[in-house]
Amino acid sequence: MAKKKESAEPELMKTWSLPTSMTIGSAVRAKGILQEIRARLPFAVRKALDLEGGILTLAMPETSRAIFRATSASTTEMLAEMEALPVIPREIEDILAISTSERRRWLEDGRLPSAGTRTVKLRGRARQITFHVFDPAVVVDILDRGAVDEWREHDIAAAAEKRRQSAMKAKLTRSLRKGKKKGTRKDGSNPSPLRGWDEFDAEGFLK
């Protein structure tokens, strides 16, 4: 049996563990951090940086020592900024375990305060999209105080009250229509609410 051929170029390798304070416990945010750092690196070395299990790994061949050192230093510097990296929509949905409709509703009514907007170009397309981003410190605060559960309870109560008011309005509308229909004469006119008016009208004194 032929022996497995060993790599002719031993790899240079460095790893960084992404702390929870940076990822906020989200694998989606961890991937977003990887993509953010890759986007800031020279195109030729982006794929040399990878993520697995919350650990960033930079791996290059032995012959790329100078590039490896420069990329390693740049990655370390950028990681120092990642805790403050704004949280994007798909990340906040994963961190808070909320739906897209909840995110949009709570953003609109101010419960999820926006930290500004970001515009990106879709890969392979000319079209750009703009979306709201969120302050990671605010997201952590929302998560720690369990605000999402309170918001959902509030929304359930508000929806029930809205249904109750709609039902009352519909009932009142039906009642008014029914009363109007009962009080209409065959000729389409409405009788006067004044007592004795029908008899007065019947005598023809107004004709």
TrEMBL record:
Residues 171-184 have a biased composition (Basic residues). It comes from the Bacteria. Residues 163-207 are annotated as: Disordered. This is Mlr2029 protein.
